[in-house]
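To: structure desk
From: M.T.
Subject: fold request, one chain
Message: Could you run this one when you get a chance? Sequence is below, nothing fancy, just the single chain.
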Amino acid sequence: MSNNNEERLVSAYELETEANTDRLAEVSSFVEACLEEAGCGIKTRMQISVAVEEVFVNIASYAYASKSGKAKIKLEIYKAPSEAVITFCDSGKPYDPLAREDPDVSLSAEDRDIGGLGVYIVKKTMDEVSYEYINGQNVLKIKKAFTRTE
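Reply: Done. Structure tokens follow.
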């Protein structure tokens, strides 16, 4: 992202919730409402929604093992160009989902290893995906440009 992000920032929203799949509807509604308010077109909203679901379910399923913990979702809307940046933070065990090798999608489903397809979809549908482990937190960021609807 460019250096003039502060000047480009239009809106910022934040949700902190239990990292539990029971909270997926809450997370999805939060993201959908923010994107709709920003004027994000339906096709891009759907792509972002799928990515958000994949990332949140992975956090809920794996970050804290059998314990419970929190997940924070920060959504920022930028202008010129219009883009959504969604940052997921959790204090679970360190794990970089981007380090895993992409699945071989040329193989049939029966011949592929289980897992990894969700992260692959996120990487293919978002403009940028990055991961860092900072101050005891997993920080996964996804970015997607969009065209505003009227």
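Reply (cont.): The longest helix spans residues 42-63. Let me know if you need anything else for the meeting.
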